[in-house]
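Record type: monomer structure entry
Structure origin: computed from sequence
Chain ID: A
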Amino acid sequence: MKREIDLSIEGTLESFFFTQLEQAREGQPDRLGVDIEAYLVHMLAAHARRTNVAGRTSEALATQFMSARERGAQALRAVGDRALYIAGVVPRSLDRTPVNVAYVSGIGEAAYREVHVRSARLQVFERLADRFREIVELLGKMLAPDDTDLLSLYERWRKSSDPRDTRRLLAAGVLLDPATADILQ
């Protein structure tokens, strides 16, 4: 007896990320806006298709930002997208680097804001800059599994002070004091 294997794929990357975004937003009264949500869905799908864009072989983000300022809005948009992807989707890739999520977020905000300054009609970039850190949080909630290893989570918090890690530790009952971060209570 011959078996037929069905390898049909349901939906698209865009529909997958849209569903993930909707689930992550559940219980949040404030929407980002249709334009920002659509932008995020398409940006995530594009990064999923081109995995080398934010990879380790890429130019340093600060260097890319400085050269993008001379090349124009498209280059600045690419910097903003890359910063958003790194800070929101793969923040742990920064664990062994001298920079943290706040630094990457600052570059992303600046890149998006400069796109808007150069072309005021592209208001979505102003909103992306204004809500960058909130969007990073949403992406993290959307794509990151919950950490169950409190010690690893705490060690990561000590290095990065990532607000997501702070919330997870506080929810687990860990008392945090940055001044005495070497003492786990």
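Annotation 1: The chain has two domains: 13-144, 147-185.
Annotation 2: Residues 13-144 form one domain.
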